[in-house]
Amino acid sequence: GQQLNQSPQSMFIQEGEDVSMNCTSSSIFNTWLWYKQDPGEGPVLLIALYKAGELTSNGRLTAQFGITRKDSFLNISASIPSDVGIYFCAGRFRASNTGKLIFGQGTTLQVKP
Amino acid sequence: DAGVIQSPRHEVTEMGQEVTLRCKPISGHDYLFWYRQTMMRGLELLIYFNNNVPIDDSGMPEDRFSAKMPNASFSTLKIQPSEPRDSAVYFCASSIMTGRPLTYNEQFFGPGTRLTVL
Asked: Measuring CA to CA, which residue among B112, B103, B97, B94 is closest to residue B43?
């Protein structure tokens, strides 16, 4: 089936460090989304990307839609303890005629104060 | 602004019992999605609706699962009979088609229902 490869699977960093995670696909996407999920809650939309090469920021978060349309990355600058959680990428295949999103397996981020 | 509302937040039931999960999407949203999340399989789309009409139910695991959307502000996901392997967190999400293309991809999730089937 269609899959997204998200990496790394987990990260344990020191407060203040920058974080980078990415997702890749074997197929072309026309939408990339990044979500964050806190324990016991639903995923929260962080950033949405719609154009190849698009670079979008949301506070300390920056995400890019890869120019090949097959990848995306999310950067978090100067991490703080509340950045802890699971980050998911999600995308929609360009060839898809449905509203389905495909989700990555998630990157678990832990921040040491 | 009220987000997506789901009830109950937690459900514990015994195998064979019927379970009904409820969702109220964000007002004005015309897409509604049901997902299941497990450690093994991650987030899986079960079914989604557009303007109350089921569009794609290919993710529904089997006939024991059914979903309805009788109106724009309410949807249910029913499992009958429930089995232990149905234990998971079930999320409802909604989105809206605006004038900007593809914005309906921006799905907003509810807090989820944690289902445990004993």
From this structure: B112
**A62 in contact with chain B, both atoms CB, cutoff 8 A:** no
pLDDT of chain B along its 118 residues, tens only? 689 999 999 999 999 999 999 999 999 999 999 999 999 888 999 999 999 999 999 999 889 999 999 999 999 999 999 999 999 999 999 998 776 667 767 899 999 999 999 9
Q: Which DSSP string do the residues of B55-77 spell out, in sequence order?
A: EE-TT--STTEEEEEEETTEEEE
State the Cα–Cα distance between residues A87 and B84, nearest whole angstrom.
28
Rounded Cα–Cα distance for residues B5 and B56 (Å): 22
CA distances (Å), origin B25, targets A49, B36, B37: 23, 17, 19
Nearest CA in chain A to B43: A103
Please indicate if any CB of chain B lies within 8 Å of the CB of A85.
no
Answer whether B111 sits within 8 Å of A40, measured CB to CB: yes
Q: How many angstroms separate the CA atoms of B67 and B52, rounded? A: 11
